[in-house]
Amino acid sequence: MNEVILGLQKKLGEMKALVPTEAASPEQIKKYFNDTEEVIEGILKAACDQEDALTTELEGVKQTVKELRGLLKKNDTIIEPLSMRDLYYQMGKAMVAAWNRDEKTLAELKFCPNVRSEKWNNPKDFNWVPEKGFVPSKAALGEPIGNLTTNDQYLINPIYEETIMQEAAKKSVMMNLVTNRPMKNASIFIPERDRGGVELKWLTSYGQKIEATKPNTPTRTELKAYTLAGFIPWFDEFEEDVYVDLGKMFIEDMTEAYGQEFDKQCLIANNAPFTGALNASKVKTHAIKDADVAKLTWTDFRDAELKIAKEERIECKWFMNETVLNHVVNIKDDNGNPIWRKPGDNMPGKIDGYEVVESSILPQFADIEANSPIAIFMNPKKILHGNRKGIEIKRFDETTESLEYGELFLRFRKRDGFLVTRANANIVILKTANT
Q1: In angstroms, rounded to a whole number, what is the distance separating the alpha carbons of residues 411 and 153?
Q2: What is the DSSP string of 169-221?
């Protein structure tokens, strides 16, 4: 039998098994069906390109595609976006199931075991078989998929993961501003080049020789992802009537902590394990004329902005603590009128025409000393966030608190990477003078 056809049939079978019955949002539903149709078209083309394939093999692929499309059409009429209460209930139920190693319930909720230390599993790695439990659907030769009998860590349903990340974005000022890159591996290389990487030549006459040009070769910059872990405690007994409260507690605690950590890594981290904009190498700086931050003037902002090329400034924003912004609001002109236009005016929430983003983790006005940062002017899209899919939950009861106070812990893990790119062309740190 044609090996390619066999592989395509297997892929179609996996797609049929993973057709969702619920979704995080209408946008996710639409994206799923669009992406799935593209994959189906690719499979059909690959099958038809097999010149040595038998007619029966091709017909088998077409029949499976027909069945898959029928299933998609059927589910398209019944899939509804999850309400937050539904998500709380399902997550709470899954947390109880994970704690009790109730794999049947976890399988129904489309969770799956995570038994690899580096390369995490995904739902299509396992099938649920009654009376047998989770059964590996594939395992690379020489790479055992893991010991399921002692496993107590599970990857949550990817649909729940997307909703949770949407909630986390509400707790973060940076998550919707930076450039998000999916990562299939722990490390990827990003081509980082200056503006004008391609050199253009005009030809002014017919037959003119085209001179060879040497484009600006990009720098290969590595984006690494590491694992972030946190522990969420609780005391309550596991009963069905607390599923909603338990799930709500987990999602709210997890998203708040993750949102704050996301902002920290983007803005103020100092090699722990990433470096944020405030500590990035090669950033430009602009010092005001005085070591006293109270002497900050309106022109200091304009002078700092001019250190970035006009073409690069288009997407730049000011980032500062709300206490610094409060000082800016109260700067007055010679006639006693506020220079900064308040929201509701013709130019709301902007300094010198640039949007202001407040972050509580940036330096507070009262704490700023001589030679200290005040605010950041930058294009946040030049900060890359590497997102490796998957959120893992694991029961964790081997603690002193558990033994002494009956306090239980659920550990969550997620994998992310952060990288500030082209800092010299896109970031200016406004700071106080040295003396």
Answers
A1: 9
A2: HHT-SSTTTSEEEE-SSSEEEEEE--S--S------STT---------PPEEE
β-sheet with 350-351: strand ranges across: 284-287, 427-431, 373-378, 317-320, 354-358, 350-351
Tracing tokens 């005040």 back to the chain, one arrives at: 374
Rounded to two decimals, the pTM is 0.79
pLDDT lower than 70: segments of the chain: 1, 18, 21-25, 28-29, 32, 76-77, 138-150, 193-198, 212-218, 235-241, 337-348, 397-407
Strand-pairing partners, residue 275, are 270
> Which residue in 122, 259, 111 sits closest to 177, CA to CA?
259
Burial of 423 (0-12, 13-18, 19+ CB in 10 A): buried
H/E segment holding residue 423: helix 423-426
The candidate with the shortest Cα–Cα distance to 385, out of 199, 259, 296, 295, is 259
Alpha-carbon distance of 226 to 392, in angstroms, equals 14
CA distance 424 to 285: 10
pLDDT of residue 204: 80
Q: Are 270 and 435 in contact (CB under 8 A)?
A: no
pLDDT tens string 149-173: 667 899 998 888 888 998 999 999 9
Structure tokens at 241: 């009537």
Integer Rg of the chain from CA: 27
